[in-house]
Amino acid sequence: MQDKKVLEVNHLSKKFGKNEILKDINGTVKSGEVICVIGPSGAGKSTFLRCLNLLEKPTSGEVKFDGTDLTNVDEKQLINLRERMGMVFQSFNLFPNMTVIENLKLAPIRVKHMKDDEAQKVAMHLLDRVGLKEKANAYPSSLSGGQQQRVAIARALAMNPEVMLFDEPTSALDPEMVGEVLEVMNELAKEGMTMVVVTHEMGFAKEVADEVWFMADGYILERNKPGELFDNPQNERAKDFIGKIIQNV
Amino acid sequence: MAKKKIPDATVKGMDKSTDLVLALKTHKIDALGIEKPSAEAYVKNDSGLKMIPSGYDLNKNETGVAIAFKKGSNSLVTAVNKSIDQIQKKNLTEQYLANAGKYMKVNTVNTSMFHYWKYFAKGVEYTVLISIVSTFFGVIIGVVLALMRFSKQKWLRGLAISYTEFIRGTPLMVQVLFVYFGIGVVVNIPALISGMISVSLNSGAYVAEIIRGGINSVAKGQTEAAASLGLSKGDLMRFVILPQAFKNIWPALGNEFISLIKESSIVSIIGVTDLIYQLNIVRADTYRGVMPIFVAMLLYFIMTFALTRVLNHFEGKMKHAG
Ligand SMILES: Nc1ncnc2c1ncn2[C@@H]1O[C@H](COP(=O)(O)OP(=O)(O)OP(=O)(O)O)[C@@H](O)[C@H]1O
Ligand SMILES: [Mg+2]
């Protein structure tokens, strides 16, 4: 079970027009693994993550999820596979026209055809887990950034996904709210969720990541245990980059 | 004609005698040549006016009167010619003129605007009727056009774009005339229906743009979040995009309805008895130039203001829910 490949990426490339943003990316994510992706702005981290659930269509290469190549399935199958992957965005992207609980219930009811009371139970349980039970009937605009992001995580979890993708989930937050979100992610990792996290939070990466991938210029230039990569980077670009983020902390 | 008879005069043309009298009173023109019965009516109604018999020495050719007939109605033409001959032979003209003077409705007794409330009410009724019907069909046409704009079929998109651009690039007045006379060649439709058709077609193009703008204004992240949850395109539209788009669409649509009330006034040119048309009737009837305009202006304002209040009420309700 531990060795089951959840995601497998082979020779992935992505062009925007003539601009090749991802060039020959390879990698596997096994069940229960937590991968942190770091790298300078414009390296292609978000594009890579979005290729994993095909929000962005790869130009060439394979993205296999649970053995199925996502680049080769029709729209309907894609939607079926996508509901098994959760995604959390930098800018939360909660639906502002719905209350918190409605945000959580929408996909389970519409996509999984869950009954309303069952969806309600699942949603309340998840809100309790992220510490926001009392906000169930609030609208997202009345929540702080940290609270919104925790709701966004709960919303993704409501679909009971097999893997969670996070794109810089804390970088739009005020510093005092980063902790509450990382704590939720930390627990999730400890419960065995498979996760791919684009983040520059070294503390988090060191504590929960099995591997850190360093990306620059559309390539994964180095992958290593977090301790190794942060304290003793082999790649020159990685050394340079890590030097900079340590200075900033 | 006046040019020949009065030296140093510049001639200004207008089509309605009420407008001409008004121009005279506001010193835009110095004098007004007009038929005797009309002049009498104006002078009776307004002490600031004075009638001067022109004493023009006009020959028969210059006072000619023509009667228009439908092409091909030969028997009618002969009949009319026959009567005219008889009238001239028996010299009945003098007698007719006296009668006409009696019949001509010169209302100089009660020219208060309240006396004409039925006229204005009819005008308001038609203006409201045209606006409501055109709003309704305008929204339907607009939704269809907007859907076409988001279609996968290139030709559907092209068709919607061409239509919208063409409507927005031509004056409503021309569209009204084109529908009335253009379609009139094929099937005879009443002026009111023509007016409603043309205003609806026009409004549809603007509504389509409003809907498209509203949908495009919803943040891209919303679509991505919905897609990442596995929502279908239909559910994405229904539960996420449209409710949010509607908040932007609603105020813009409200403005469109309000301008529709005002713009629909153009249908008076094809003889639809809307408020503008009625106001001109009242002007002609009372020989009062300004007051009917003022009343119509007030009525338009009351209509648009009431609508604004209603729309604001709903907008406030929606804000509360979001
Ligand atoms: N839809 C798009 N169309 C064109 N170019 C794009 C698109 N999305 C991303 N890019 C370009 O791809 C490059 C990589 O973008 P990406 O967002 O993946 O970088 P990133 O590593 O996530 O950076 P950051 O740390 O700033 O988020 C950038 O130069 C960006 O301009
Ligand atoms: Mg990014």
UniProtKB/TrEMBL annotation, chain A:
InterPro entries: AAA+_ATPase, ABC_ATPase_HisP-typ, ABC_transporter-like_ATP-bd, ABC_transporter-like_CS, MetN_ABC_transporter-like, P-loop_NTPase
Major subcellular site: membrane
Bilayer topology term: Peripheral membrane protein
Residue ranges of every copy of the ABC transporter domain listed in the record: 7-242
Compartments where located: Cell membrane
Record's GO cellular component terms: plasma membrane
Domain of life: Bacteria
Keywords: Amino-acid transport, ATP-binding, Cell membrane, Membrane, Nucleotide-binding, Transport
Listed GO MF terms: ABC-type amino acid transporter activity; ATP binding; ATP hydrolysis activity
Annotated Pfam families: ABC_tran
Recorded family membership: Belongs to the ABC transporter superfamily.
Protein name listed in UniProt: Phosphonate-transporting ATPase
Organism of origin: Lentilactobacillus kefiri DSM 20587 = JCM 5818
Organism lineage: Bacteria, Bacillati, Bacillota, Bacilli, Lactobacillales
TrEMBL record, chain B:
One Gene Ontology molecular-function label: transmembrane transporter activity
Identification of the protein by name: ABC transmembrane type-1 domain-containing protein
PANTHER family found in the cross-reference section: GLUTAMINE TRANSPORT SYSTEM PERMEASE PROTEIN GLNP, MEMBRANE COMPONENT OF AMINO ACID ABC TRANSPORTER
Residue ranges crossing the lipid bilayer per the database entry: 126-151, 172-193, 289-311
One GO location term (cellular component): ATP-binding cassette (ABC) transporter complex
Subcellular location: Cell membrane
Keyword Cytoplasm tagged: no
Residue ranges constituting the ABC transmembrane type-1 domain according to the UniProt record: 124-311
Keywords associated with the record: Amino-acid transport, Cell membrane, Membrane, Transmembrane, Transmembrane helix, Transport
Family: Belongs to the binding-protein-dependent transport system permease family. HisMQ subfamily.
Example of a GO biological process term: amino acid transport
The keyword Transport belongs to this UniProt entry's keyword annotation: yes
Membrane topology: Multi-pass membrane protein
Species of the source: Lentilactobacillus kefiri
Pfam families: BPD_transp_1
Gene3D superfamilies linked: MetI-like, Periplasmic binding protein-like II
